[in-house]
Amino acid sequence: MSQSMLSDMSEFHWMMDMLQTVDVGLVVLDRDFKVKLWNGFMESHSGLLPSQVRERCLFDLFPEIDKKWFINKSRPVFELRNRAFIIWEQRPYLLRFSNYRPLTGTEDFMYQNITLSPLTSPTGRVDHICMMIYDVTDVAAGKKLLESAQVTLSEWQERV
């Protein structure tokens, strides 16, 4: 095996390791919304192994997802090659994962920001999208706490 091939294999290996260990959910979906990639974050928070989800439809795995809404949200990603965003203020979560900090966390579930990105094939067609799921529970809890404090302060000021 040539040095170049060994170098390429080594690079591929550490890239795959990075995809599995990054603290962001990574899911690759095809046009039928079948799961092609499911990283370690997703495994850890869903309790589902990659072998259990690969080639299965996202809507079968998570029937609570509003299928029509998600398909409409994904359409411009596939057709126009535009990224799409889902923020926790609009929809607290897409996949209801438990808050994994039950002792220090004040929320029952993980608040999520999600980015849908097109993945272009060698032919230039977008046959897959990447869904990146970010845990923003700390940000959401902080904002909710701030809003609650503002309401309390306003009520106190009205009484004074």
UniProtKB/TrEMBL annotation:
Entries under InterPro entries matching the protein: PAS, PAS-like_dom_sf, PAS_4
Transmembrane portions of the chain: none
Signal peptide: none
SMART domains xrefs: PAS (SM00091)
One Pfam family in the UniProt entry: PAS_4
Domain PAS: 13-79
SUPFAM superfamilies: PYP-like sensor domain (PAS domain) (SSF55785)
Protein name: PAS domain-containing protein
